[in-house]
Amino acid sequence: MIPDIRQLKKKIFKYRIKPQYQKQFKIGFIVIASFIVLSFLVNPISQGIDSLKNPRATGKIQVNKYKDLNSVHLRYAKARGIKPFKSSWEFHKGIDDLVDEGRLERVSNTKNYVVKRLTHSHPYLRPVAHDFLDDLGKRYRQKLKKNGLGNYSFQISSLLRTKESQKSLSRSNVNASSNTAHLYGLTLDIAYKSVVKKPLPWMKVEVADAKAIKLLSETIGDMRREGRCVVVTERIEKCFHITVIR
Asked: Which residues contact 73 (CB under 8 A, 6 or more apart)?
């Protein structure tokens, strides 16, 4: 309970203070009173900010199970993808030329999706795959609005890989095949463990909102049925492994 400053002031000022000290005393009183009030306000404010940073999970996450085989992903990726980079050195040497030629485009954060910190891949896709990603983001946002949910962004966890990075990944991840569609610029992984929300303009938090994540899986399924992609739901990595067809 915040103390009544007026009552406090009456009790203090009933004592006689010499005129030459009254101004200094009033300033000191204001400072002390402000500190007392702030001490009562800061704790609930900090608790509120903490709850924004660490939202509780809502519901049990259940997503659609898609089972397009790796061989199918590879067939489409090889048909329209780039020639794989052998190493990171080769990637950095050749990426600018591929971008200038319009064969690859850089993938950056938008209001509809964010790129997670990439450890074994680079944020580039073929133009057709980039267009697919933008369409998916817009359609997901529309589906969220239609169902009365907040503005969430989905997260991209992997994009273009080199043979070198794939080999490194396969050592630590038994689910990572050495022959992956990620080498060709048409394949991306979208995480489904959580989605991202901005409770404040400068703050991004991951939210395990089961309804929002289910809608994400349905939106991906809509585009799969339209023949725009093939998808496998990866249980261990908790992501949708998507290769774009058109």
From this structure: 181, 187, 230, 232, 241, 243
